[in-house]
Amino acid sequence: APVSVKLKVLEACVTSTLLQNCECFGNNIPKGLESVYISLIKSCLGVKKSTPNELVLIESGMPTLKSRIQSRQYNFYLKFIEKLEPDSAREKVFLYLRRTKNKFIDYYSTLLHKFEFSVKLKEKHLNDVKQKVKNSTGYKHRTYLGFNANLQASNILNKSFA
Q: Would the pTM count as exceeding 0.85?
């Protein structure tokens, strides 16, 4: 199958499984989840395991798993806040948890205050990946910069994972 089809299947089936209930992860993303995600992308692209993760993400146009998780958490928490009814039991429990400095609630509140939209969150993670490549002194990163100085996703794959 063409790479673009493989990435679509990865997106539709596998990634959704990895992200199942990620809204409740809080700041504790299960260890190894990002590694599995990157391995799957590398498999779809048919590249060696030794290919730097940042280059795989840039070339495929796929966001980091952490950015996807945080984006879903952001949207979940935003909807939760919007649906709180005044003086409801749900609102009272929520306000109590915020007053008692609950780490879980604080994490979600920070996401909401730090980013205007969930898209901004994904942009920040992508910029972090690109900056890591630009600042790297590694041979593979430097060589890749010679071919893709703007660090744009591959036109051949022609896939956007916004």
A: no
